[in-house]
Specification:
Elements (H helix, E strand, L loop, with lengths): L1 H71 L5 H17 L5 H11 L22 H11 L6 H5 L2 H30 L1 H9 L9 H19 L4
Helix pairs in contact: 1-2, 1-3, 2-6, 3-8, 4-6, 6-7, 6-8
């Protein structure tokens, strides 16, 4: 009888251990699932916050550029202002060396403060970012845009901004902002000479001497009007 009692107690202990072990595994599994759910919720929340931040940045950028355009061109339709502002914002995502204030300052000066998509310079440069036809044809190949006539492409403000920003980004990458502007206006070779001679303004063309500080002044003015 004693032996049977010992066996019964041993069996009960074993069963209890199995039950406790099973309950422990269930608890661990539930904890893991709960942790995974919490982690998924946290990841989803973080992703939502990132998307929200991107939306706020985009809207703020577009609103600011539209305000700049309105300051210089009061007859442009709101729909076109929005298209241009959105394209400028997209260019800052494509080219991190550029920002909306710098692009807007360049366009403002290049267009003689008109933001007129069909503005033409005395030298024959066309459109918002004043692109020469030969330069435009070369950039269009890089950008993958069809080249028909200079007027068709360069008077299209969206194309003009894409080509101008592609070129400006290349130059800023090589020469920084001031050197990039000097190259954009007076050519890369002259900008290289200017930088090599410790930015001696006598190296630059007369027009470029005033062009660089004028664009930078607009850039700093736009930048102080907001944080973008």
């Amino acid at each position: 009888m004693l032996f049977k009692g010992v066996l019964k107690k041993t069996a009960l202990v074993f069963i209890a251990a199995v039950v406790l072990g099973t309950l422990y595994l269930v608890f661990i599994r539930a904890t893991i699932l709960e942790t995974e759910q919490i982690s998924h919720i946290e990841s989803s929340f973080a992703a939502h916050n990132r998307l929200q931040a991107i939306h706020v940045e985009r809207k703020s950028s577009i609103d600011k550029v539209m305000q700049i355009i309105s300051r210089y061109n009061r007859t442009m339709s709101d729909s076109l202002k929005y298209e241009l502002a959105n394209e400028i914002y997209l260019m800052t995502k494509k080219y991190p060396k550029l920002n909306i204030n710098f692009i807007s300052a360049t366009i403002t000066h290049e267009s003689a403060k008109t933001w007129d998509p069909k503005v033409v310079s005395h030298a024959g440069a066309l459109g918002l970012m004043q692109i020469m036809p030969a330069t435009g044809a070369f950039l269009a190949v890089e950008e993958g845009l069809p080249w028909t006539t200079p007027e068709d492409v360069l008077f299209n403000p969206i194309y003009n901004i894409r080509l101008g920003c592609r070129y400006l980004n290349q130059l800023v990458g090589l020469y920084e902002k001031d050197g990039g502007l000097a190259a954009y206006n007076g050519g890369p070779r002259r900008a290289e000479m200017w930088i090599a001679n410790k930015r001696d303004n006598m190296i630059l063309w007369e027009e470029t001497r005033t062009y660089v500080p004028a664009v930078l002044e607009l850039y700093h003015r736009f930048r102080t009007e907001g944080t973008l």
